[in-house]
Amino acid sequence: MEPARGSPRRVALEGVEWSVPIDWWLPASATSPKTLEGCSLRPRSADSVALGAAYPIDSWSGTQERPARFGTEILTGSPYGPAVHYTDGVFVPRTPPGRPAVFIDQKQPLSLRGALGAFCIWLLVSVGHLVLHAAALSVGRGTVLVLGPSGSGKSTLSAAWLAAGHRIISDDMIVLSPAPHGDGGPLIEPWRQHLALRSGSLGLWPRQLQGAMSNGPDGRQWLLRSEQPAFYSPWGYLRGLVILASSPRCRSSWLRPASQAEALGAVLAGNPHLRGRLVADDRVARTTALEVATGVPANWLSVGSRLMTEPHREIPHIEELLDISTRA
Q1: CA-based angle 245:267:144, to the nearest 5?
Q2: Residue ranges in the chain modelled with pLDDT below 70
Q3: Pairing status of strand 236-244 against strand 187-190
Q4: 3-state DSSP helix/strand/coil % of the chain, to nearest 5
Q5: Spatial contact of 10 and 93, defined as CB atoms under 8 Å apart
Q6: In the 3-class helix/strand/coil scheme, how is 298-327 assigned residue by residue?
Q7: Extended strands (E) in the chain
Q8: Taking a C-beta distance cutoff of 8 angstroms, is the pair 215, 221 a contact?
């Protein structure tokens, strides 16, 4: 089942049996971080067997726990086995048919950080996709994946890249397809629909670009894909990996080769959804991670302190380094 034709946003998840109305897939707010906007997640099953099912919360026969905070979870038992409770519903990894199911509270806003997100990630991982905590920058005809923990500078580097007149796919979360698409290589698509900047990073932007930002409820400035599509690429083919170095920063940015083992470690570390208490069968996804880590050039990048003090000088240097990072 799909949203009605002509709807402003469409959410598709093939291989899923929907037993819920679709009207609630069309949220009224385009700025809420709790809203699932325009995602098109398509895990495919070779034998066309349904990968999972979605039901209204009224179909849930167990006790529903309500976490105190949005984005947190409670793990319990249920008539179906282990269940994970969120503010927007319940995710059950394995129901009697042997497939995952999600029970959605249609009164709550859709979220990739709740039951629906857990359900989608489980399906994607089970068929070999990677949901990575990474930035993706459009470089030439390809895409450079920027890996690093929270606070390492992915969003700041993304802002600098946009300020230089380039595009990004995402500054924080991406979905990477497991198999090459034609001759293009692995495909990267956005998971999150906006770029979020702390106030300190806004200085990288020319004054006219700062006017494109919107105030977010989390105290950061957002660049919304739906309102500023010119800054974003909808997808891209992987051409290189960059790992942000945590060593003390020099004044000027530098780049050095990373080993395949370091690249694989960074890719696995960037997929926190494989490290939860309930983990999907991730064998295919780990094979994808190995292919990604060994199939493209990988480099360490240390972003220099001059990026914040003299961005007009440092951004061209970073442009050059990222272009080099795509060369084998």
Answers
A1: 70
A2: 1-50, 70-71, 110-111, 178-184, 198-204, 206-208, 217-218, 248, 272-282, 328
A3: antiparallel
A4: 25, 25, 50
A5: no
A6: EEEEECCCHHHHCHHHHHHHHHHHHHHCCC
A7: 16-18, 52-56, 74-76, 83-86, 89-92, 101-104, 130-139, 142-147, 168-170, 173-176, 187-190, 194-197, 214-215, 221-224, 236-244, 254-257, 298-302
A8: yes
List, in order, residues 6 or more apart from 23 with CB less than 8 Å away.
none
Sorted by sequence, the CB contacts under 8 Å of residue 265 that are 6+ apart come out as none
In the chain, the domains with their CATH numbers are 16-126 (no CATH), 130-324 (3.40.50)
Give one DSSP letter per residue of 57-111, joined into a string.
Answer: GGG--SPPP--SSTT--EEE--TTS-EEEETTEEEES--TTSS-EEEE-TTSPP-
What's the rounded Cα separation, in Å, for the pair 285 and 287? 5
The amino acid occupying position 25 is W
Say how far apart CA 222 and CA 76 lie, in whole Å.
36
- Its pTM stands at 0.79
Q: What is the CA radius of gyration of the chain?
A: 20
Tokens of 264: 């694989």
Residue 163, CA atoms < 13 Å, CB-side half-sphere: 27
CA distances to 28, 66, 70, 298, 319 from 84, in Å: 27, 10, 13, 36, 43
pLDDT on residue 73: 85
Phi, psi of 20 (to 5 degrees): -120, 150
Contact by Cβ (8 Å): 121, 131? yes
Contact in structure between 109 and 137 (CB atoms under 8 Å): no
DSSP single-letter state for residue 227: T
Between CA 151 and CA 41 the distance in angstroms is 27
Q: Are 177 and 238 in contact (CB under 8 A)?
A: no
Token pair in block for residue 102? 């999600």
Count Cβ atoms below 10 Å from residue 209 Cβ, excluding itself: 17
